[in-house]
Specification:
259 residues; alpha+beta; Beta-Lactamase; 2 domains; two-stranded antiparallel sheet; 8 helices; Tscrpt_reg_IclR_C; DNA-binding
Length: 259
């Protein structure tokens, strides 16, 4: 086997062993290097290297200088992020459904995920012609209403970093100039909503509002989308108010308190 083939296999094995270590500590509460090495079927030096990496990432902690290892608080951080998304999807399901019935348009909730927006909940409107099922799909931040909301409320440094990327053109209406997009993002924060008119898909309009978490940061965006002939620019402005009310209600369920 060539070196290029051996290396990925070795990396996969290391990941599998690291997960086994975390599962062992979760099951037993604590364990020493000898016990961990025996569980993995590896030499103590190999187990020690794995634990050093996990400890550097905050995923395990050592009790005392030469004590046993336990699960670290880094796991809590990772679990909290996943739990937060699950709670948001669960709580948002009924809000999406109620709003979709009120507006007659498809309503989505999306969160930021590694430079894109990912839709975690959707309710279809009552209209005969509705948009496709976006649940689980990843969409660009700069060309969708939800994505623009998520991008607008990012910390300045993160926003600037993402704006340095090439902005792909999906339709002739997509904003691809970073300066123009930055100005639009500032207006979104000021206005409290974002709109897209055929920027991601020709014939589709959408509008989105922010959802806030308990710490006051924007954790998601709620959007309504539909065909351009029905969701006109004028109607977009009209539905911002009920959408903001629904998003505020969901934000409060997540622990957000508005002064």
């Amino acid at each position: 086997m060539r070196n290029s083939e051996r290396q990925p296999a070795s990396q996969v094995q290391s990941v599998d062993r690291a997960i086994s270590v975390l599962e062992l500590l979760a099951r037993n509460g604590e364990a020493g290097i000898t016990e961990i090495a025996g569980e993995l079927g590896v030499h103590k030096s190999t187990a020690s290297r794995l634990l050093s990496v996990l400890e550097a990432r905050g995923l395990v902690e050592q009790l005392g200088e030469r004590g046993k290892y336990v699960i670290g608080f880094g796991i809590v951080r990772l679990a909290g992020a996943a739990t937060g998304r699950m709670d948001l999807a669960r709580l948002g399901r009924q809000t999406c459904q109620t709003l979709a019935e009120t507006l007659g348009e498809t309503v989505n909730i999306a969160v930021a995920d590694d430079g894109v927006a990912i839709n975690i909940s959707q309710a279809r409107g009552s209209a005969a012609i509705t948009t496709q099922n976006w649940t689980g799909q990843r969409t660009p931040l700069h060309a969708t209403s939800s994505g623009k909301v998520l991008l607008a409320y990012l910390p300045d440094a993160e926003r600037r970093r993402l704006l340095r990327r090439k902005l792909e053109e999906y339709t002739p209406r997509t904003t691809t100039d970073p300066a123009d997009l930055a100005a639009e993002l500032d207006r979104i924060v000021e206005d409290g909503y974002a709109a897209c008119f055929e920027e991601f898909e020709l014939g589709m309009h959408a509008v989105a509002v922010p959802i806030f978490g308990s710490d006051g940061d924007v954790v998601a965006a709620m959007s309504a989308s539909g065909p351009s002939y029905r969701l006109s620019r004028q109607r977009v402005r009209q539905i911002v108010r009920p959408m903001t009310s629904a998003a505020t209600e969901l934000s409060e369920q997540l622990g957000y308190y508005q002064n």
